[in-house]
Amino acid sequence: MATRPEEESGVNVIAEGTTLTGNIITSGDCRIDGTMNGNIQSNAKIIVGTNGKLEGELVCKNLEIEGRVKANVNVGELLSLKANSTLIGNITVGKISIEPGANFVGNCRMQNSKLEVPAQQPNEQQNK
User: Fold this and answer.
1) Per-residue pLDDT tens over the stretch 56-82
2) Residue 2 falls inside a structural domain
3) Cα(11)–Cα(73) distance, rounded to whole angstroms?
């Protein structure tokens, strides 16, 4: 049985105690339990764990934040802010869920359109 490229992508993990500086473009899920300084583009879900810290720009299908994010965010479907999470930045979302105890500082724009991240190779983005 043939698989489509989006089915072949695994989960990308930035483990606790790890610091990553750079950009990620992926069609798979991404979990951040460490520290990331950079941009992420994903056609899937991004999870920022309880000890996770992210600073940059985010474009994804779904986003769940348990830790701290300082970024402008564009989420095609659902943004979920868990209790004790912090999000500082402007967001564009399809839907948003904010648990009691979560912190959000910024502007929110809701839209119903589905977001598709264009499939780009890292070299293509650098040439722009």
Assistant:
1) 999 999 999 999 999 999 999 999 999
2) no
3) 20
